[in-house]
Amino acid sequence: MAIVPTVGIETIPAWLSWLFPMIGAFLTPLLAKINPKVRDYGAVLFSFLAALMTIMLIPLLFSVEALPKWEVLPWIELEGFPVLSKIEFGVLVDPLSIIMANVVAVISFLIMVYSLGYMKGESGLTRYWFFMNFFIGNMLLLVMSENLVQTLFGWEGVGLCSYALIGFWYKDRKEDYLKTWVGEPPEAYPPSHCGMKAFITTRIGDISLLIGIVIIVAFTGTLSYMELIEKVEHLPHEFMWILVPAAILLFGGPIGKSAQLPLMEWLPDAMAGPATVSALIHAATMVKAGVYLVGRLFPIMYVASKFYPEMGSFFYVVAWIGVITAFVAGTQAITSNEIKKVLAYSTVSQLGYMMLALGVAGTTFEFFIGYTAGVFHLMSHAIFKAALFLTAGAVIHAVESRFLHHMGGIRREMPITFWSMTLTAFSLMGVPILFSGFWSKDLVLESTLLAGQPILFALAAITAAITAFYSVRMLSLTFLGKKSKHIHELEHEGHHIHEAPKVMWIPYSILAIATVLFGIGAITLLPLGGFGGWLEHTFENYLSRLPGMEHSSTLLAAELATEGTLPQELAVIITIGTSLTVLAIGAFIAYKLYIRRSPDPAKLVGSKGVLKSLWNFLFRRWYVNAFFYKVFVYPTISFSNWALKHIEIGGIDKFNYVLANAVRGFSNRFRRTHTGLLNYNVIGMIAGIILLLILVYMVLV
Amino acid sequence: MSTPDFTLYALTAISLYIIGLYGIAVRRNMVRIVIGLEIITASVNLNFLAFTKLDQSLLPLAQYFVVVSTVIGAAIAGLSLMIVIQAYRHYGSIDAKKLSKLRW
Amino acid sequence: MSESWIILQPIIILFTGALLTPLIEYFGRALKFEKTRDAFAIIIFGLSLYSLLGIYEEVQRQGQLTYFLSPYEPQMGGVSFSVDQFSVFMALLFCLLGLFVSIYSVRYMEDDSGLDKYYSLLMVLVAGLVGISFAGDLFNLFIFWEAMSLSSYALVAFRKYRWEPIEASFKYLVMSTIGSLTALYAMSILYGLTGTLNISQLAAIIPTLKIPSQIPYLIIVAIIAGFGVTASIVPFHFWLPDAHPAAPSGISAMLSGVVIKAGVYVIARILFTIFNPIAFDFGTTLVIFGIITLSVANFMALLQRDIKRLLAFSSIVNIGYIIFGFGIGAYALNVYGTAGYSIATLAVMGAIFHIFNHAIGKGLLFLGAGCFIHEAGTRDLVDLEGAGKKMPWTGTSFSLGLLTLAGVPPLSGFWSKLFIILAGFTIPGNTFMVVTTSLVVLNAIFAAAYYLWLMQRLMLRAPKPKVERAHEVPILMVLPVVILGLITVILGLWPFEIMGFAEVATKSLLGLIGG
Known about the structure:
- The complex is a heterotrimer.
- Chain A has helices at 12-34, 36-56, 95-118, 125-144, 148-166, 177-180, 191-220, 225-233, 243-257, 266-269, 275-284, 286-307, 312-334, 339-361, 367-399, 415-429, 436-450, 454-479, 485-493, 502-524, 530-543, 552-560, 568-595, 601-605, 610-619, 624-670, 678-700, and strands spanning 69-77, 86-93.
- By secondary structure, chain A is an all-alpha fold.
- Chain A has a two-stranded antiparallel sheet with strand order 1-2.
- In chain A, a hairpin with an 8-residue loop joins strand 1 (69-77) and strand 2 (86-93).
- The relative contact order of chain A is 0.08.
- Chain C has a domain at 276-515.
- Helix content of chain C is 76%, strand content 2%.
- Chain C contains 20 helices and two strands.
- The longest helix of chain C is centred in the last third of the chain and has 36 residues, at 341-376.
- The interface between B and C is large, with 41 and 41 residues.
């Protein structure tokens, strides 16, 4: 049963959701001419409209049978073009896009409101609002898009905005080192550098994505997601082998955009941007685009895998990259000295979880469990990580520094911030029952068990312990303990630490409450299997109606039945038990080290020895960053300097000078032929006549 | 009496032309240069008439051409001599070699 | 063919005007209004332009127009006028530029004396030019040619209280007279051989002549050499760099813009119409001389310090392009016979369009240079640096002129050069064409060097002391400059009208339409 595109009014909110912010972005310079306040509020208004549009799509989630709503408009007709007959432009409304769009739009709106307070008094705000709105528009375009090319537009658009916003303080002023730079020597980077780094690193992923798209188009002749699901079954068997490399190349894009290994290094350094940017782009939305794309491609690859079992290796690649990234990034967060960088590493780590879930889902019969786990964790991570970044921004504002060792003991002065951060950090750690993070993370772990992958499960569990460790570390270093010397200096100068303004703490407390609500919602909806269960149900209902997926029940089950999966109830118990255990272990160790201060972490690590080298190793980010710089960046820079000196100046410019001088010299000599004497001129004429005669008579001969 | 035939006239015309051209190319006296111009005019007129020796019917129009050409030649001579006089006022001599301030 | 005396109208108007100008001057003095003669001149030019438009429409309707001066009948090769699209094209161009120059001269020449003679001579000049384009037989052409030449000699020497115009005018006179007499010599041989000087009759008779083939080529040589002096083909060009700077700027514009084009026009008319390019090979010669002209003039132009002398050499360069264009057309017809008509049309159309473009552009440049000189009082480039900044209108139009001659799109000069070069490159197998066209391209790039350098000097550098006191010129001087600049921009963006006109002119020149 093929699904055909239709035109209807239900998709109008989908179109408007990305059109409104785009329009808002372009109106921003005009509004700025009227009044700065008009511009600020106008920008927030447009993001509000986007959120409104996406919320209007939520009721569709409850009538899954009506989905997908797929609408296309003709765009480029390519007659006579080999393979590809047309490129269209449209929207695809299905549970995945509805959920993602809401996550993006609502959190964006809250962050825009927070920006009103956070960015107050900054210069260049028109640029800021423009790019924020443009970003939201592109992100929603990406989410709503119905084909690969349109996704690519949104993809590149958010990349551009990310570059511009990370490098917002592009002037790289040394005075702002404590607030706007990132890293410590030898890896301290100014904002403009970080923007460039983010852009180039994700570009590498984008190239791989583009090659993957080209291969897909060449072999299937279509770019549309829905059509690909159908076409992939009918692909002749001898061409099926191309799908694996194509899929892995396509996955290259998410590796870049979602900061997986080996392209993860841009995300920690993207913290040079304002906290709002970090929250929006690097926690809640843009980095999720990679996960989203994998989710979009999931049905296509899954259907392919039932006809071509080697396709399963694609899913294994995704899962393994996910879990290794999660582990590595988690360890890097342990030693980080900056509050936002801890959160950045944590984001990378959690993104790894999502990839793990999606990858593992593709290898089992009950794909919808892993799929749901990935999407659920995406949602809950967006909420709590955005809140964490926003609170971190409030703290940085208050303390005027990004470093953890400049903070401490500000719990009494900033209570709301403290509680928001604590609640959301608990969600991150996976503190049970009340927090959505617990439910989503457990679903991820459960899906790995159900897929029969104990190693992945173990690694994910260890990472959970590490997550708990660094979360507690961060909380205690920021709010508990004694005030740092830096704070005492500030107070001495008259800057007292106080709570953030209302326009700032309202958004993040809303998010903190939301994370708790989703957690509670998980319990209260227990008859349905909890919130997660409801999601599972929805996805199962929707995905199995897609062409090709319904057969999976018989074929794939037979193949995978030999994998030795556990019965569901047993898996749930093991998962909950394991996660509680690792949570306790991690939290307890951190508690001992950072709250009780016995043993003192600095003394424990010491200045030499195994622990110190280990600490160095983790602090220098497993030397991955250093490796990239040494192998790619510095050689390129020195080559370009060399090329400038020798090729550009020495070769090309020199050629110009030589040529110009030669011509001038010749010209100077030649000028003497015009003697200005009439007699000679007439002689010249006679010579001309003779020349003419010669030429003309040569013709005759 | 026997009239000289066409070849003689034609050759004379060409030689006059060359002489005139030579005069302009070699002589430094500006007046001589103007004379050279007039010699060339004469050669052209002669050439017109030379051809009438070949074909009598050409004569009426040829006469017309020659008369007009002579008038124009006179105008040129007049104009050029005026310029020579002005040149004398500026340079103090009628040596064409002095007229070489405009060069390169 | 019909008898239409309207052909004579512009010429009559202009000659009458020339005769009446001293009278008007007298009236003007009586009325205490100095500028009466200037106004009169502008009116006369306007009227002649208007009548030319009438002729244009007639020609569009009827094809070629002819008019005979009785009592001699066509068979006798009487004096006649014959107007086809090419003639109208040129005549319109001449009159248009004449009009602009007279508007310009109102303010530019106001400090000179004897202006009644100036305007008279200008009218005779344009009358001669129009007569040349309308001439139906060679002697008629010669008469108007001499009218044009004599008035131009006098105009160059107009400011006779300075040494420079005198020297320049003398050299100009001598060389140009040699040229026209040489051409007359050729005409005499032609007349002797065929008994007629009527152009269309000559075209019919020449192929049938039983003469050794050296003779027509001798005539061709004499024509090219003779008219080539005024057309400033190297090595007959030595007068031009002296005469054009020495003349008052309006006259420089006329000289560079139209007088030398008259030379090219006549060469084209005689060679293409009378000597069928398919039968006679003069294309190679024209091409080679075109290249020589281009290269020599480019090298000379590079290091000039006098702005008008640089522009004068640049005129020679552009004549090189035009001659090259005509040459390629003739060559194509000669080598490929009737199959070469498409290439020839393209090349000749490019050349004719370039005549127009260069006239507009060079007129613009000389008038603009005149504005700068009028304000700054110097012709030296180094002293004129930054003049464009002080005089924005003039400076911008001047830059437009430079760019259009450099062949920068979207200005009109780009199109004409493109056609010529395209025509040259159409047949990659023909090495002669390819090699020569590549040389043309190289020269075009070379020329761009000093155009851009001049533009940079004038517009982008800090003003020198002499320029400091300069301010924008009076509107009557600036107006023609700006209008010419606008024309070049508009035609660059929408060249199709003028291209059509040029194409029709080409076709009638090559004998592809009508009589």
